[in-house]
Amino acid sequence: MSALPTWDLNPIYPGCTSKEFQHDLQWVVTASTELEASFVDTKKDLKELISTYELILDYLENLDAYSAACLTTDTANEEYMKAVSQTEEASLVVQHMQVAFLNFLATRAEEIAQRSGEGGDLEAYRFPLNELLEEQRHLMSEEMEDLANDLARSGTDAFSRLQEALSSSVSTAWDEQTEKTVIQLRNEAFNADRSIRKKAFEKELEIWKAYEVAFASSLNGVKGTTITLDTRRGYASPLDRSLMQSRIDRPILDALISTIEKNLPMFRGYLQNKAKALGLESCAFYDLFAPVGKEEQHFSYDEAHAFIVQQFSSFDPEMGSFADQAFKNRWIDPESRKGKVGGAYDTAFPLAKQSRILSNFDFTYNGVSTLAHELGHAWHDHVVLQKSNLLRSYPMTLAETASIFSEFLVFQGALEESSKEGRLALIEHFLQDATQVCVDILSRFYFESAVFSRRKEGDLSASAYSALMEDAQKRTYGDGLCVYHPYMWAVKGHYYSSDFSFYNYPYAFGQLFALGLWAQSKQTGTDFPASYKELLGATGSLPASEVAGLAGIDLADVSFWQEAMDVIASYAKEFADGLSD
User: Fold this and answer.
1) pTM score, two decimals?
2) Which of 59, 200, 376, 511 could cysteine-pair with 185, CB 3.0–4.6 Å?
3) Cβ atoms of 430 and 267 closer than 8 Å
4) CATH classification at residue 71
5) Side-chain half-sphere of 27: how many Cα atoms within 13 Å?
């Protein structure tokens, strides 16, 4: 088997110590300072100031994405750590300018209303500028915002880096000759041998147990800071701030959550059927990803490349061509290695108008599906990177739509090429993912809600966090599982961000919105790819309700979410019927 490639970051910067990287760092600082000084000049044109503001954000995003991309492939690299630190220092200057910019916009609110109205020269910026004005109403004083941003580097951001570094590097003895990192242990969850899955699960729990004090202290710091700052900024709760960032409201969230809750029996029934297929009385947490049916087809990296391009092209040739270039131009880092973070992500570089994808490809269909997911993000980036910063910055809710839609395209293609037995295995894989995105995500939503409620009263112990997590899993998985994972709060880095709380429900939103769009594509016909691209292009400049409205969808209507859920239910029924044949 040929060696996996590493990604090529040279088109972005030659290196973290390169003159190009250092030049852009200095430019961001200088330009931010100069722009902030110009806010007092009442003769400066608003549109010109907005353009400069957007360019500064583009440069900072480029620097931040590059330094983070380097560090996530080698978390112990001191040069990369320094670059991340340098970028954070520059970002403090930008953040100071951003606070001043928001306050400046408030002084021009009447002008913004006029020029962003119908026919105005800032009409395209109507929603983004109003969103910034709403954010301004939640600002603390400039001095307090400066202090909060500065302290984040040694507080919440440091806690997040600690979680990331530990979870990517700690290891334990697997046998007399081999050590496995926690990421490698978690990858064994896909092993067909239950004894190996169970052994890996138990060793993983031992690792989390050994480091639980560090993780609990980190989470206490992040959530405590979040509560303090959100309160000072006038948000009713961290969830309210999250909803604003997600560009949805409570009625939309309630419609989404209630639909998932209503369908929990369907997911539990699937897990009970999976247990039967595995010859078990009940599934344990370490059985969630166990393969069912015919052993999954293995893919070389080149085969994954060809298959994804084929499926994307069958939907939209332009999308397929884009994915092909991403592989050929080495935009992807697929190798799993020590020091590299687990999981997968896509990151965009606005100056180069390119993306890069980190994954841990394991030569299975699951690995192919993950690549398709991240390439969906990259395709979304490709569509919006042609726009200016304020018109392309989309929320997580809509970000997950493109990725899951792409996953589903690959799933449909795989079904068409499979045998009867292979089809059953693919459907089970789809149901695995759907269970994670709906059931497990709901458990994370319950957990985080409970944590914020309890954290107001003081620090929580590691055992308290584990108890809350297990309770949340029991509420969602119910009798679908007999063994739970009490340390998922230590596993998931999403909990360790104070910039975006409730980094969970947007995934469920994305999955069901994507499935709803796919159902529509079957009715719309050949014009749908163009409509889909138009919808993606609007995700940065409109609230989620108006983006959905372009497709005639009412997000507060539970019938839409149920229609999407019915797609999952149809496969759950086919899986159950297939087992009885």
Assistant:
1) 0.87
2) 200
3) no
4) 1.20.140.70
5) 16
